[in-house]
Amino acid sequence: MRGQSGISLRTVAGILALVLISAASYAQTAQRAKPAVAHGASAASERDWWKNAVIYEIYPRSFQDSNGDGIGDLNGITERLDYLQQLGVDAIWLTPINPSPQVDFGYDVSDYRAIDPQYGTLADFDRLVAEANKRHIRVILDMVMNHTSDKHAWFVASRSSLTNPYRDWYVWRDGKGETATDKGAPPNNWQSTFGHAAWQWDETTRQYYYHNFYVQQPDLNWNNPKVHEAFKDILRFWLDRGVAGFRFDAISTLYEDPSLADEAEIKDKDGKPILNVFGDVRLDSSKTRNLPGVHTVMQEMRAAMDTFNPNAWPGTRVLIGETFARNAAELNQLYGSADKPEFHLPMDLQVLPAEMQTGSARLDVAQLRKNLTDAETGIGSNIPLLVFDNHDRPRLDMRYGDGVHDVDIQKALATVLLMSRGAALFYYGDEIGMKTTPPTRKEDVKDPVGLVGWPENKGRDGERTPMQWEGTAKAGFTSGDPWLPVPPSVSTINVKTEASDPNSLLGWYKALIQLKKTNPVLAQGANVMLDTDNTKVLSWMRQNKGAPVVLVSVNVTAEPQTVSLKLPCAGVCEWKLKTLAKSPGAVAPLTPERIELGPYGVFIGEAE
Ligand code: TEU
Ligand code: CA
C-alpha cells in the first residue's frame, strides 16, 4: 500500500519506529547522564573534588571474581564497594574492561564501546557506577588511545588494502631497500617497549606497521584528524554513562617523528652501546616519546570533557595522564594553560623513580626531599598527583622493603603519599602491603613481556596477583582457579586480619585518608619542607593562613632518630603540639623541638 509520496506505509512505520527507538535510547542516555543526587555536597566541592582526591587503582582481573571463573569482574568490584567506602577513597580507576584478545590484558582494545564478556556486560557496568555513586565513589576508566588491538575492526580494515579508508588510521611504511620480492629492512631502528623491533611486516599489503608495544597493538596515526574525532565520540559514550573521568594510557608515545629518522644509541663512558633487558641496544627515544603533538590532542580532549556540568555529581570530569615527564617543567606543560587546559592530573611518577630503588640511592632523603619539592612547587598553582605504584612496576615492598621493617617502611611511604599537597593515587593491595610475587617458572608467565625477557624480566604478573581479602588458599578472591596464583603471604597479609589490628598497614592507610579528607589544612594547605639538611628524617609542614600548622616527620632509616623542628614564627612562640597520628615507635612529643621517632617511625601533629 503506497501513500501519496510513493513511500510505502511500511517504510513510514519503519522510520517512525527508528525515530521512537532513537528517542527512547536518547532519553535513556540523557536519563543516565542526569546527575545522581548530589549527596548533599556543595557545587564547589563537586567541582573541586579531584584537588585533594584519593584515587584507588583496580586491576579488575585480580580484584574480586563473582562467577567462579577465576577472573575478577565488574560484579565482583560492586560486591567490594563497601570496603572501598570504608577505606575512604574518592574514586576508583579501572584498568581496561573493554573487549580485548587480552594479549596485554585489556590494553589491546578491540571494541571501545562495550565490556569484555570476561568482566561482564554494559548493564553490570551501569550497576557498578550506580552503586559506586550511592557510596560517593567516582568511577574513572582507562582510555587506550596510542594503539588498538590488531583485532579491532579499524585495523582489520586498515590492513586489508592500501586504499582502504582506514589505511591512514595506522602507521604504515615501506621497508628500506624493499623490492617486489624482498620486504627489505624495517623503516628505521625504533624499538618496542616490549623488546626488539617496533615494525611488523604485513605480507597482505607488503608494508610494515609500527607498534610501540606488542605486535598485537598497532599504533594509531594521530596525524589523522579522523582518529581525534573517533576518540572524542568514545569519551562522550562513557561520560554519558556517568564516568567521572579517564586515565589516558601511554600518552607519552602518542606521536612519532614523521621524518622516521633513527634514534640515537645510548653509549657508556667508553662509547660502547648499552644493552637493555631484552639484549637490544638502548635508544634515546627522542623520535617516539613526549613529542609536542600530544598537547594539541589533550586540549581537544579536555574541551570535550568540559562540556559536562562540573557542579553536580560526579562533578568535574577529570583527565589523568599516564605521563612520564622527565622533570617538573615538562610535567607542568602537561597541565596546559588557563585558556588551553590539558590534564587536570598528569601523573607524577618521578617522586619515587626506579633510580631510587637500589643501593645508596635507595630512599635517599635528600633526593626524596628534592623530588617532593619539585612536585609541590615546580608546577605553579597546578595540583600534583603523586603515584608511587601501579600494575606495571614491582610493588613498594619489593622496591623498598628490607625484610625486617616492611610494614613501617610502607607506613612511611604512605605518609609521604597521603600527607603531601594534592591528589594521591595508590594501587590495590598496597593498603595491606601485598608483595610482588613473580612466576617461578617460565611456563607460568602470563604477561608476554615476561616470556620475551625471561629470566631477567619476568614480566608484570608479580604485581597483579589476586587481592588478598582473607587468609585462605584462594584469598576470598574466587571460588574457582585464580588466573594467577595467590601468594603465600596471604596467611598474614590480608584485609580480614589487618582490619582487626589498629596498628596494621590497613589501619594506617584508613587513618591517614580520613585525616586528609577531614583536616582543611591537609586538604588545601601549602607544602613547606623543614629541617632541610637532615639526611635521615624527612619533615614538612602543611599550612593555611590562620589555621594550626600540621607537622609531618618521617624517619627514613632503620635507626631511632630525634628531630627538632624550628617552626617559622614572629617573636617568641610557645608551640603546643597535638598528636594526629603516630606509628608505634614514635613518642607523643610535647613540642616540635623534640620529636623522637623509632625505625621508619612517623609523627603527624597539629601545632598552634
Ligand atoms: O604503560 C605504558 C608504559 O610505558 C609501560 O609499558 C611501561 O613503560 C612498561 O610497562 C614498563 O615495564 C601503559 C600501561 O600501563 C601498560 O600496562 C601497557 O602494557 C602499555 O601502556 C601499553 O598499553
Ligand atoms: Ca603512538
Q: Ligands bound here?
A: 1-O-alpha-D-glucopyranosyl-D-fructose, calcium ion
Any idea what the CATH architecture of the largest domain is? Alpha-Beta Barrel
Beta-sheet strand percentage? 5-15%
Low-confidence stretches at least 5 residues in length (pLDDT < 50)? Answer: 1-7, 17-38
Question: How widely separated are the two ends?
Answer: 88 Å
Task: Describe the structure in your own words.
Strand 9 (345-348), helix 10 (365-377) and strand 10 (385-387) form a beta-alpha-beta unit. The strands form four sheets. The chain has an eight-stranded parallel beta barrel with strand order 1-2-3-7-8-9-10-11. It has a five-stranded antiparallel β-sheet with strand order 12-13-14-18-16. Mean pLDDT is 92; it is low at 1-7 and 17-38. With 608 residues, the protein is of the alpha/beta class. It is 26% helix and 14% strand. The protein folds into three domains: 38-147 and 223-260 and 285-512, TIM Barrel, CATH 3.20.20.80; 148-219 and 261-284, Oligo-1,6-glucosidase, Domain 2 (Oligo-1,6-glucosidase, domain 2, Alpha-Beta Complex); 526-607, Immunoglobulin-like. The protein binds 1-O-alpha-D-glucopyranosyl-D-fructose and calcium ion. The site of 1-O-alpha-D-glucopyranosyl-D-fructose has 10 residues, from loops. Residues 104, 107, 144, 193, 213, 249-250, 322, 391-392 line the site of 1-O-alpha-D-glucopyranosyl-D-fructose.
